[in-house]
Specification:
This is protein-tyrosine-phosphatase. This protein is mostly helical. It contains five helices and two strands, in the order H-H-H-E-H-E-H. Helix 1 crosses helix 5 and helix 2 packs across helix 5.
Length: 146
Amino acid sequence: MGNICRSPTAEGVFTKLTEDLGTRDRFLIDSAGTHAYHVGEQPDSRAQQTAKQRGIDLSYIRARKFKQADFEEFDYILAMDTSNYEILMDACPDAYKDKIKMFLDYAPQREESDVPDPYYGGQNGFNHVFDLVADASKGFHDSVVN
């Protein structure tokens, strides 16, 4: 929603994955929220700490709100949960609706369909989000590159 927990974690995880696999130049990677609650802010300190413990720096990311031009600019728009998916689908011109996917569709081994928002929870929630995002990032990468 606000681009300070889940989506910047996904941006950082996917960026690191593509760097490690030598495919970074094939992707334009960005994250955005569907709400403007935290525009210009760094990711939540708990998200940064969780990522840092796993070798990923999120400090370069600044929250931004999704804009209409993003529908045209990006080939894939990955929603973290059903609520954000519906917001994006409602705002999207028909020509670009096929670009919007649920992020966890790329982690079929996971039972969840939504990446839960860890903002009001504890550290375990941020760890769980990181694990979900890491699995989906690998699955998404494999589906695009292969």
